[in-house]
Amino acid sequence: MTVTRREALGLAVGGVAALTTLRFSAPALATGNAVEEAIMKFTGGVKPGEGDITIGAPEIAENGNTVPIDVSAPGAASIMLLAAGNPSPGVATFHFSALSGAQEAKTRIRLAKTQDIIAVAKMQDGSAITTKRSVKVTIGGCGG
Amino acid sequence: MKRTVSLLVGGLFCSAISTAAIADDGRELVIDGQTIATTAPVPDDHPLDEIISGWRFRSAETQALQMDDFENPAFVAIEYAEELWETPAGASNQSCADCHGDADSFTGLRAKLPRWNEEMGKPATLEMLINASIETHQGAKPWKWESAEMLAMTALIGLQSRGMAVAMETDGPMTDWIKKGEELYYTRIGQLDIACANCHEDNYGNMIRADHLSQGQVNGFPVYRLKWGSLGSIHRRFKGCMDQVRAEPYKRGSDEFIALEAYVVSRGMGLSVETPSVRN
Amino acid sequence: MAKVKPRVKVPKKASPNEVVTIKTLISHPMESGQRKDKKTGEIIPRKIINKFSASFNGEPVFMADIEPSVSANPYIEFQMRVPESGAVRFEWTDDDGSVYDLEKKIKVA
């Protein structure tokens, strides 16, 4: 292949311009505030403490489009999952019943970048517990 | 001057390649109790020292998605294809099932493709064979290469050969096509001046930025790619690579891609058909 | 995929009060409402499965409120206690108001 110097410069400038545009057109990411608000709305104002709640997720996700994740909180009535680094933090809320065999669920989620996954469980007694887990998202995805 | 700049651009791209952090841990691919070979014996004069399925280059989470036919999202397409299989179409008002019975009548086919086709005057891929049957037998409108219908049907027919060793004919009129594909494989192209071989032969197992480079084997196609969120054909993947090195991609179904498919298949003989596989 | 299609994996048999794993998947693009059409530059409107529910002989078992951060072809797995023979009913609700459903029988012996 042959690229003239002018073309190479053009490419480089184009690249920078594209990056810049991307930066500014990217939707605002969820702020700490949005996460806080979602939690308070979910628990009805109860500040969640620590407890028996776990998140299972890969340490490094090969592709942010489909990240397998599971969550478990024995004794929970509902569990809310949040992705603090996504454009909006809500992911899913699971509701359990007397016929639930366990207070756990598994799903696949989208992560816009490396970030914390937060799980909050509303317990049957009205209390709330929370945990978080960091998932690294690689930016690769060779090939269109 | 021109040469210097092209080297510089190529150099930048190569500097993105680094040694892998992920070692191949020799995990085995077992689906429904069936062990599927993810390596193959290397014949003499083969360009690679080892033949390894792309599955082995993926993370445990991605690998797991292929190990259970329910968790593998491609199986939604398989169910769709099973409906299409039974649906009459075209002037004949016949379904695939009317002539071919069950889809398992095509057991072994995927492992032999592409295969020389005298009527077409070229090697036939699975897509080409399906469309030939739709046109001549059903008298219906052929499917687009990357349509949901074609992807689903190639997945269903390919699944019938899952676990069988890839065994394409390489002699006779196939020889010239494989040779043409080999030329394409080793020819540097695009603004980044990269050949297939630069990534998939010289650097498989290494990281290109955050991606773990495989040998680019095609034994699992159509593949469900997490990045696409859907199935995609071998030729879509070829096009993606060409886009990535800033080349003008050939068209799906073009003679160039048919030749390249035949050559890439010849590099992975003995690997098991994994259709429909799951990759990142 | 060409159309929205649910799949579920439910054991056909269970012993009384056995806890079984239920896997569900529905083919759906889960359009997040944040992507732009490459040609027109317009935002592609949000269209997701926003709710999933499972019930057994009319009694609720499990429910999920779903946001756009759930991947395309949403996959949900949960545990269910099987008190008696009966049918599990699954429902997925789309933003456009459509409801996709499926029913599977479990025999308790």
Task: Give the strand order, joined by hyphens, for the main sheet of chain A.
Answer: 2-8-7-4-5
* Total E-strand runs of chain C: 8
Write down the overall geometry of chain A. Answer: globular
Largest interface: A-B, 23 and 35 residues
Proportion of beta-strand residues of chain A: 35-45%
User: What is the N-to-C succession of helices and strands of chain A?
Assistant: HHEEEEEEEE
Q: DSSP helix count of chain A?
A: 2
Question: How widely separated are the two ends of chain C?
Answer: 38 Å
What class would the helix/strand composition of chain C place it in?
mainly beta
Shape of chain C: elongated
Assembly state: heterotrimer
Describe this structure in words.
The complex is a heterotrimer of chains A (144), B (280) and C (109). Chain A has helices at 5-25, 32-43; strands at residues 54-56, 60-61, 67-72, 76-83, 90-96, 100-109, 115-123, 128-137. Chain A has a five-stranded mixed beta sheet, covered by helices on one side. In chain A, strands 1-3-6 form a three-stranded antiparallel beta sheet, with no helix packed on it. In chain A, 23% of the residues lie in helices and 38% in strands. In chain A, strand 4 (76-83) and strand 5 form a beta hairpin. Chain B has two domains: 4-69 and 164-279, Orthogonal Bundle (Cytochrome Bc1 Complex, Chain D, domain 2), CATH 1.10.760; 75-159, Cytochrome Bc1 Complex, Chain D, domain 2 (Orthogonal Bundle), CATH 1.10.760. Chain B contains ten helices and twelve strands. In chain B, helix 3 crosses helix 6 and helix 7 packs across helix 10. Chain C has 109 residues and is an all-beta fold. Chain C is 0% helix and 55% strand. Chain C has no helices and eight strands. Chain C has a five-stranded mixed beta sheet, with no helix packed on it. In chain C, strands 1-3-6 form a three-stranded antiparallel beta sheet, with no helix packed on it. The relative contact order of chain C is 0.31. The mean pLDDT of chain C is 93. The A-B interface holds A 1-5, 8, 11, 58, 60-63, 65-68, 138-144 and B 1-3, 5-6, 8-9, 58-62, 64-65, 188-193, 208-211, 213, 226-227, 229, 237, 239-241, 243-244, 280. Strand 5 (90-96) of chain A pairs antiparallel with strand 5 of chain C.
